[in-house]
Design a protein that fits this description.
Four copies of one chain form a homotetramer. The first copy, chain A, has one domain (about 5-90): Methane Monooxygenase Hydroxylase, Chain G, domain 1 (Up-down Bundle). Chain A is about 80% helix and about 0% strand. The first copy, chain A, has helices at about 10-30, 35-70, 75-90. In chain A, helix 1 runs antiparallel to helix 2 (about 35-70) and helix 2 (about 35-70) packs antiparallel against helix 3. The first copy, chain A, is elongated, with a radius of gyration of 17 Å. Chains A and B meet through helix 1, helix 2 and helix 3 of A and helix 1, helix 2 and helix 3 of B. Chains A, B, C, D: Pfam families: Trns_repr_metal (PF02583). Chains A, B, C, D: Keywords: Coiled coil, DNA-binding. Chains A, B, C, D: InterPro entries: Metal_Tscrpt_repr (IPR003735), Metal_Tscrpt_repr_sf (IPR038390). Chains A, B, C, D: It comes from Halanaerobacter jeridensis.
């Protein structure tokens, strides 16, 4: 059901790093660091999340979506779902 | 230097929750959950980060930026810095 | 080569409307309307463009991408291209 | 009421160009150009609109917002309005 197995360890490493970045943000706020530095760090986390998201999206398209199309099974459903998630991605 | 002191505890609570959400993402990937569910969760984290960012941005504008303007000290510098961070925010 | 033929007239109507919105923006600036009203209108145009983009993206995925996958022709190439354009979309 | 007077001609020139870009998009759709080329062009228009938006935002902050703060008149109101428009900007 998941298409990202071959990247799993890489994704987990990235998410661990992102978790560390969020913990770093918590520390920055606790230490009352300069607002703009906090905002810059938030942007860095968003950028890192976007990259993880794009990896998952690529795997999903090359895996689940491609398979659904090849097997002509729930093609439209899976593409609509893909469009929906891309649209939400574009708006966050 | 930081303008968000009065929201500090609230921001820390939110960041703790976001840290938990990222840990949840890690678990989802580890358990090979469905790609679109992972993507939906990534979007949720981005949304939560955006909200924290907007809180910090508001505090910064009402605090640091307002003070710089009132004291006519490095006004342009601080507004350019603000614009820069908003622009980066818009592009992540 | 284009997958949006069946929506062509609808897309053209929307783009005509967007053109009108941009012309409206030009008029607003010429008449020195309030900054925030100009910004709100810019956001409206971006929102309308996003919707057109999502329509084209959906057609593209259901058309060109689906065909490439079914015919097993340049599958990876067309999915990489898709990911690339989605990524750029996410960052504008 | 508007803070962008000194950039007015520049903004109008840019908006004229954006109007031309949208007309170009209309032509591309009419000629059934390749989907990804249409999407790339939509991204270009969004990028150009973002730049106009950032210019207006900068003028607004250096003008209207700064004045409201200096004159201590409706400060909070104008900053809340600013945050609101920035937030919408971030989500389109």
């Amino acid at each position: 059901m998941s298409s990202y197995q071959d990247k799993k360890e890489n994704l987990k490493t990235r998410l661990k790093r992102i978790e560390g970045q969020v913990r770093g943000l918590h520390k920055m706020v606790d230490e009352e660091k300069y607002c703009v530095d906090v905002l810059t760090q938030i942007n860095a986390v968003k950028g890192a999340l976007n990259k993880v998201g794009m990896e998952v999206l690529e795997s999903h398209t090359k895996g689940c979506v491609t398979n659904a199309i090849k097997e002509e099974e729930k093609e439209d459903e899976i593409i609509n779902e893909l469009m929906d998630v891309v649209f939400k991605f574009t708006n966050k």
